[in-house]
Amino acid sequence: MGRDGTATEHTATEHVDVLVVGSGFGGSVAAERLAQAGLGVVVMERGRDYPPGSFARTPAQAARAFWAPETGSYGLFDVWSFRHFDSVVASGLGGGSLIYANVLLRKDEHWFVERQQLPGGGYESWPVTRADLDPHYDAVERVLNPTPYPLEHPGYDDVPKARAMRTAADRLGLEHFLPPLAVSFAPEPGARPGIGLPIVEPDHGNLHGATRRTCRLCGECNIGCNEGAKNSLDFTYLSAARGHGADLRTGHEVRTIRPSARGGYEVDYLRRDPAPDGPPADCVPVRTLHCDRLVLAAGTYGTSGLLLRSRRHLPGIGAALGTRFSGNGDILSFAVRTKDAHDARPSSVAPSRGPVITSTIRLPDDLDGQDHSGCVPPGRGGYLQDGGYPAFVGWLVEAAALPRDAGRAGRFLLRQLAAHAVGDPDATAASLTGLLDDGVLSDTSLPLLGMGRDTPDGVLVLRRGTLDAEWSTAGSAQHYARVRAALRAVSEALGGRYADSPHWLLKRVITVHPCGGAPMGRNQREGVCDAFGEVYGHPGLYVMDAAAMPGPVGTNPALTVAALADRACTRLLEKRASGEAASPDAPVPSDAPVRVLDTYTQHSSVQFTETMTGDCVMGASDPRAARRSPAREPLRARLTLTIDDIDEFLARPDHPARADGWIEARGLGGRRPVTDGEVHVFGRGRTPDHRELRYRLFLTDDTGTARTLIGVKDLAPAGLGRLWPATTTLPCVLLEGHLSANEDRTEGMADIVAAGTLRISPPAFLRQLTTFRTTGPRAAATLARFHGFFLDELRRIYGPARLLG
Ligand SMILES: Cc1cc2nc3c(=O)[nH]c(=O)nc-3n(C[C@H](O)[C@H](O)[C@H](O)COP(=O)(O)OP(=O)(O)OC[C@H]3O[C@@H](n4cnc5c(N)ncnc54)[C@H](O)[C@@H]3O)c2cc1C
Ligand code: SF4
């Protein structure tokens, strides 16, 4: 039994050549390439599979279509709401391809910058070029078979929004084209397009064993294609991977990873049971698998979260972990009530007709060396695309407009009353027609999507074990101003009114293209992994998904994610062929002793936030001397300390707590997030009667250079009068690099960048007392245990007779 009384499950330890975590654009490519080369591949995907016809369409189905394991819902849409932005990603066999808009574009050649200054400081750097990727773009395109929307083919020629986008671009002098879409418009490549025709399957068939039909223009691509017309990854790469022997496991969620003592990696995972009467999420047993090579392809949030959660097992993992996050410049707006240029009559754009995206307008980049159009100022490049939606959304649009169109609603009510009075049975149809205003609003209004090269200045961190993102649109203000100007120009060129998405009122965006978090870089300071996705210092561990992007792709990113994974697999297989083993092969016999981990029990946690102010001197090395220096500059910190498990905290002699938050100093380039932090609360001191409060905080300065802030309060036995100054004053030094616990204790190991002192003021201390929070069972007892521990330690140091009797 587990500690909480839940059952633990005994499973034989399993060994595989390669474990691929996640089945999106990176994971599917990796599974197919590696299985095809003869490696034993297991794919673990947390979501379920979605054959054609299984995507939610009714309100009851939609209610369970979200990924919310805490409520027992394991659906397709994983919605994140961070402090300054929102995001949607997918969960299912095929990852983002199940709900994406099918656009497969290559990243522009000049946008693979080698070292480009960013607007707010720091730089963007891609360790690969377009020439490196072109053969891999070719390879992926051969499988996903993207083709421009066949606008001139009978049957597919009546898609007004595609023509409207072309018209707008022509009027504005902007570059326009029909982007390649991974959708089957014809039964097989080269055949004549036609609506609703059975699609000819490749030799490996499809893993669902389902009949697919060509696109019928329903605009439902973002909620899953029930026709099977999208060339999504389940029909293509994953079906081929299975044909080569890959084992595709749905409902398998990987929780932590660690290097194994016998080489390779051990991976802990849960099996999610979608049955309504399956075990509750907090009682699911944890199983462990061993692999020689581990490919992380769980997407930006999945992979970054896994690495952050497993960080303590991955010594020396790059300081860049969590960094270079961006939303790929995504922004949504609307062209409302478009009109004909000649007679100013409403002009249909029919957003529900056609695939979700049909057209692209390209905004040049300063790097392209092209002339800029008058409607867009110079800047970093971007793309605009038409948006579409299912027909039922059109009804919602009309309904949502009614309260604002009081005249129309009032006329409807009056007509109904009059008809009732005179007993006119035909009046309802007529007044309903008036009520819907001929559906003009939804028929003449078009969602417009913008994206581009925003600033990759975001940081992903863990808070209370949950992933959080520190990123806002503020750092990319120039990008958003430019793209919105272009979107406005397009709306007006269509004779419509420009409208921001309501989110923008709060300067928020919803990104569907998150990038970064485990970026590739030329060295360990710059990236978590190299240009082939292999994690620095951890051979055989790969990042092959959008988390590896060192900046925004600028265009829709899926093709670049897939091409980079294809390139990484080529390198992995070359290394294997040259005999460079990822780890000594140590297959475990199937009757080996069972390895069982505890279930994930619900721990009791404590959390509080402290705010400290003080000063520091750049270049100084002694905090005491720095206090008198005329070169002092302000130093501030706000840290949230989290004790995830009060039992473990009390049991360990160093009493560790996690620290999240920020440090602010001019010499750091402003306020910088703490990407990983630990505080030892009353750990062992220099002698048995000393205690130590030791802070070790990782951050990067505004140039991306790694720094560690070490602060130590040495608490020596003394009278009560020393209690306040000793416990509220933190002498600290800022060191070069990210230093492990052993390194930061070694005198002279690291270069000191600055020294200073942080203090908690009496008002800040009072505020801190209001910030205590607990989670888990027995909240009051947990808090009492923490405070009891704290007071006991103070009594030990400052004397029982003098402190609280
Ligand atoms: C609505 C929408 C429209 C889009 N349209 C386009 C478009 O037209 N063109 C384009 O290029 N891009 C588009 N995108 C973006 C594109 O889908 C992503 O860039 C792409 O899917 C990223 O690929 P990936 O391999 O990094 O991750 P994903 O494709 O997101 O795959 C990650 C997979 O890992 C699984 N996973 C996560 N955590 C775990 C875990 N712990 N254990 C096991 N499995 C796990 C997830 O369930 C998921 O299936 C769109 C996205 C959305 C949401
Ligand atoms: S428009 Fe409809 S049929 Fe065509 S790909 Fe999209 S969801 Fe499938």
Structure commentary:
This protein is an alpha+beta fold and 805 residues long. The protein has 3 domains: 14-147 and 176-327 and 510-577, FAD/NAD(P)-binding domain; 331-501, no CATH class; 605-798, no CATH class. Helix content is 24%, strand content 24%. Strands 25-26-27-29-30-31-32-33 form an 8-stranded antiparallel barrel. Strands 1, 2, 12, 13, 14, 15 and 24 form a 7-stranded mixed β-sheet that branches. It has a 6-stranded antiparallel β-sheet with strand order 10-17-18-19-16-22. Strand 5 (77-81) and strand 6 (86-90) form a beta hairpin. The protein is globular. It starts with 13 loop residues before the first strand and ends in a 7-residue tail after the last helix. The structure holds flavin-adenine dinucleotide (FAD) and iron/sulfur cluster. Iron/sulfur cluster binds at residues 183, 215-221, 225, 227, 229-230, 355.
Characteristic terms for this protein:
805 residues; alpha+beta; FAD/NAD(P)-binding domain; eight-stranded antiparallel β-barrel; seven-stranded mixed sheet; 34 strands; 24% helix; globular; disordered N terminus; binds flavin-adenine dinucleotide; binds iron/sulfur cluster; EC 5.3.3.1; GMC_OxRdtase_N
Distance between the termini: 43 Å
In total, how many domains does the architecture comprise? 3
Number of H- or I-type helical stretches: 18
Would you state the CATH class of the largest domain? Answer: Alpha Beta
Q: Return Rg in Å.
A: 29 Å
Helix content: 10-25%
CATH superfamily of the largest domain: FAD/NAD(P)-binding domain
Under CATH, the topology of the largest domain can be stated as FAD/NAD(P)-binding domain
Largest sheet: 8 strands, antiparallel, barrel
Heteromolecules bound:
flavin-adenine dinucleotide, iron/sulfur cluster
Strand content: 15-25%
Q: Strand order, biggest sheet?
A: 25-26-27-29-30-31-32-33
* Approximate shape: globular
CATH architecture classification name of the largest domain: 3-Layer(bba) Sandwich
pLDDT < 50 runs, ≥5 residues: 1-12, 583-601
